[in-house]
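Encode chain A's predicted structure.
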Amino acid sequence: MVELIRPDVTLHREWLDFLADYDQPGLDGGSVSDELLPVMGDPEVFRTWVEQVHAREHGRELPEGRVSSTSRWALRDGEIVGVIDLRHELTDLLLAWGGHIGYAVRVCARRQGVATEMLRQTLAVATRLGINPVLVTCDEDNVGSRRTIEGAGGVYDGSVEGKRRYWITAADTPIGYAARPLGLDPLRGRLVELRLMSNDEVRALHSGERRPDWASDFPRPDDLDGAPLRDVEGLPGREWSSRLVIRRSDHLVVGTLGFYGPPDPADPARTVEIGYGLVESARGQGLITDALRLAVPAAQASGATVTAHTAYENVASRRALERAGFTATGERNAENDLRYVRARS
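Encoded structure for chain A:
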């Protein structure tokens, strides 16, 4: 039986035994740098590293360019037989070829179902965190890993720099990628990144200045309405303000998304309304659905009830809301737009 456990300082000898029986350069899924591997025999180095791994699971002590991750060891009959790491979001590098999940199995435990079981249990963790779909990659020539991923439901999505990319979609996961509360950091999904505007970007919007990272038909009039000319960087409750929708395939700004202010402390439901829009050239690509699946769970993790309004004839917007877990209430606002509410997961 394979059990996934948190890295444990009391298992130093077992960890060294695992490393001694691993035959590949580096350690994919081990959450340990190549520079640190040769000195893991030092008890203090090992203890410090384990404490850092625990902190990173909660978004603390993250090295530059790293994201929060859940690292686990596979324990079988008292031995560490594998390691696996679930990254909570995708940087551009991870989106290209690293993926959400990396794993490794020691030589003596290969072809015994260890990788399959580690992946199965870690996909369940991803489901609880709302990470869906999950990107998993493997080397082109790693037939065993390829079979493991395909056996878990991986759908091939091309290769990048010798890495085969697979998306695994869970049918019964909460909608969304982000279980953490809404903050000032960017939110990254499969198709888009949501980033808060800077003061310079707001001024450019209103002055008519063109920026090289803007789509040719950005901004729309509604994008200006959602970004009033003011000091947005010093704005209280800034995390609830308008964000740029950046298409990850080409890094172009193609729209905006944001909330109409933070929740009212006097409102027991802490209701907020979300608004969004894309330029015409970016529609029909699933970008708004991806954006909603990022922003809405983060708002709910902050304790808010999220609502939205859209015109009845705007079928694309209605479908995006429904795919993101919203339900029409039957109510309408002064503009006769339908009201939608996102039920809590």
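The first helix runs from residue 12 to 20.
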